[in-house]
Amino acid sequence: MTNHESFGYFADRYGFKIVGTVIPSVSTGASPSAQQLARLTDHIKATGAPAIFLETGASPQLAQQLAQEVGIKAVTELYTHSTTDAGGPAPTYIDMMKYNVKAIVDNLK
Question: What residues contact 64, with CB distance under 8 A and at least 6 apart?
Answer without folding.
Answer: 74, 76
